[in-house]
Design brief:
Blueprint (H helix, E strand, L loop, with lengths): L1 E5 L6 H12 L3 E3 H9 L3 H23 L6 E4 L10 H8 L1 E6 L2 H9 L13 H19 L4 E4 L5 H10 L4
Parallel strand pairs: 1-3, 1-4, 2-3, 4-5
Helix pairs in contact: 1-7, 2-3, 5-6
């Protein structure tokens, strides 16, 4: 089974995904890493050079055409489910897991590395929380289409593995 981890940036998709993949003995893939490898550019550099629309098209193409093995864990970008038919495609091709976290917790996690994130780098703490709150409000209708929704605050590999198993992993 393909397991797609979705959620806002900073929710722990990559970290949790690597741990879940190890626990399941599945390969792990990070969609952003696949894009940077294919383009030779970081995501912020690609955004700056070509704009968000071109990035979202490349993201969709990479998501939907990459040769994933039948069983794997895939960490997606925070916006991936919100563009084109990506969420429906992921739901059709695997198990989607939304790692849900409140804006204040996300802002705390993102504070240290915000200089690497184009959408956050110029925001102070209060602005960052408000930005996250607004973006989450826009994205929740997509995120909430996930087959599994799990609280990311105290997420453990065991609780994630259990949620995936309960959702149908054999």
């Amino acid at each position: 089974m393909k397991i797609f981890l979705i959620g806002f940036m900073g929710s722990g998709k990559t970290t949790s995904g690597k741990r879940l993949a190890a626990a399941l003995n599945y390969p792990f893939f990070d969609l952003d890493h696949q894009i940077t490898t294919a383009t030779g550019m970081s995501i912020p550099a690609y955004f700056a050079a070509y704009g968000e629309e071109a990035f979202r098209q490349l993201e969709q193409e990479t998501l939907q055409t990459f040769a994933y093995p039948d069983s794997c864990v895939i960490s997606t970008g925070g916006g991936t489910p919100c563009y084109y038919d990506n969420m429906d495609w992921m739901n059709h091709h695997g198990l989607t897991v939304f790692i849900d976290m409140p804006p204040v917790a996300l802002a705390k996690r993102l504070e240290q590395g915000k200089h690497k994130r184009p959408l956050l780098k110029d925001l102070n703490s209060d602005e960052m929380v408000e930005f996250i709150r607004e973006k989450l409000e826009d994205r929740l209708p997509y995120y909430n289409k996930a087959k599994v929704i799990i609280n990311g605050i105290s997420l453990s590999t065991e609780s994630l593995h259990s949620a995936v198993r309960n959702a149908g992993l054999k």
